[in-house]
Request: fold
Amino acid sequence: MTPAQILSLGPQLAAFLGEFDDCFTRSEPRGHLASYVRGQLSDLPRKSVQPIADFNGTPRRTLQEFLDWSSWSPSGLRDRVQQIVTRDHADPQAIGIIDDSGHPKSGDKTACVQRQWCGNTGKVDNCVVSVHLSYASFDTSFRAMLDSDLFLPEHSWNDPERRTEAGIPDEIVYQPKYDIALEQVRRALANGVSFAWLTADEWYASVPDFLAGLETLQQRYVVEIRRNFHGWLCDPRSKTRAVYRDVETLCRYSRALLRQPWQRVYLKDTEKGPKVWEVKAAPFWLQRDDRALGPYWLLCARNVLDPTEVKYFLSNAAPGTPLEVLLHVAFARWSIERCLEDEKDELGLSHFEVRQYEAIQRHLSVTQVSHLFLVRQTERLWGEKSGDHAVPGTHGSQYLDRCPAPVSPRPEPASGANFPPTDPGSREERARTPLPHAGSIDPSGRARYQPCRTPMLHTKIEVK
Reply:
C-alpha cells in the first residue's frame, strides 16, 4: 500500500488497532504498534526497524525499544487476533493448517539461528525457523495467521553465554516442531477457536506423537503421508492374513484398490486452469506403540494432468464423509503457503534485523496483527461472493454442502465383515471394499449432510 492508501484507511486502521489497546499498559507502545503496522502495510521495499521508523518520521531508537525493551507481551496480541477471528470470521467447518518457514540470516548472533533446512531458499542454509498455525474458512475465502513461534534448535543453543547474549529465557528449551504446533492448537482452542479439520504436511504426519496429540485433542484431520508410511488394509487381528506394507505398495497392488474406479474431483480454478485430481480410498490400520489402531482412511490421489504425481493422505474422519470433502481439506494447505507469502512479500515477515529472542517474537506477533487487518480489508473491498460457500464436487459445475456427512454406525474392526482383507496376495478378497462414505451422495451428485460435527473414525485395537 502507498502512504496515500494507508491514509485513506486511517479510520478503519485506528478502529482495528483500538481492539489491542488493553494489550499494553502504557500509551507509548500503543502508538508504536500503529507506527509499526503502518510501516508493514506500506510499499517500503524493506520493512525492518530503520525504514519503518523513517516512513513514520519516528526515531529509530523508539521503534527499537518497542521491540526490545518495552513492557508488553506478544502473547496478548496473539490471543486478541484469535479472539477477533473467532468473533468475526468463525466457520463451523474451518480448517486449521500447520506449517513452518525459514528466514535466511547471516552470522550466528540472531536467536535460534543455525544451518538447517530453509524452505525460503530450498536448501540447508543459515536461517531462523518459525512454526505457524493458520485458519481458513472451508471455502478458503478467508485465511489468517493465528500463531507463530520461534523454533529453538536442539544442540546449538546450549551455551549459557550465547543464550544470554541472544536474550533466550531460561524457560525456553528445545521442543520439536510438532510439539510447538500442538501447543499452538491448544492455545487456539483455549481462545475459543474451533477447527472442524486440521491438516499438515508429511513431515508432521510421520511423527506418531503428533497424530496422537491431535487425537487426544479430539481433532479431525487429513494429513499427507509419505509413500513409505506402513499399515494394513484390513484388521490385523482378523483371522484372514493381513500384510503390513507401505502405502505405495498397498495402493498399487491391492486388488480392492485396483478394482476400485478413480473418482475425479474438481478442486478449484487456478491461473493454469482447473485443478482436478482423482482419488481412491480404503479403510486403513496403522501401528503405534506396538498397537494396531484403526480403521482410518487411506486416500490415494493422482493428478489428472500428470498421473505420475501421486499423493497419499491419512484421515481419522468418520464414516459417511465424502471423498470430495477429505480431498478438499487435504489440499487446503495452500492457504497457509499464501499466508506466509503475503506476510513475507507484503509485510516483511523475514525482514527483521533484531537479534534478541523476545524482539523476534514481538515482530512475529505484530506481523499477525498487520496480516489480519490486510485480509479483513481485502475481504471488505472484494465484498461478499455471490452464492453459498461450497466445496467443488466431482464436476466443476457441481458443489457439495460444506457440512460433514451424517454419522454412520461405527464398524466392528475385529469382525472382518465390513472390511474384508485387502492383502495384495490374497485370493479371497472381494472385488470392492465397502467404504465408510458409500451411499452418502444421491443420484443428483449433491451430498446430503447434517450440519453437525462428526466424531473421529478410528477406534483403538490392541494387538495381542
